[in-house]
Amino acid sequence: MSISPEILQIANVQIDVVRKDIKNMHLAVYPPHGKIRLAVPQNTDEEVLRLFAISKLGWIKKHVKNFKQQARETKRDYVSGESHFFQGKRYILEVKQHDGYGKVSISGTKKIHLKVSKGATVEEKARIMKEWYRKQLKIQIPSLIEKWEKILGVKVNDWGVKQMKTKWGSCNTDAKRIWLNLELAKKPPICLEYIVVHELIHLLERNHNDNFIAYLDKFMPKWRMYRDELNNLPIVHNDWGY
Ligand SMILES: [Zn+2]
Question: Which helix (H) or strand (E) holds 224?
Answer without folding.
Answer: helix 223-230
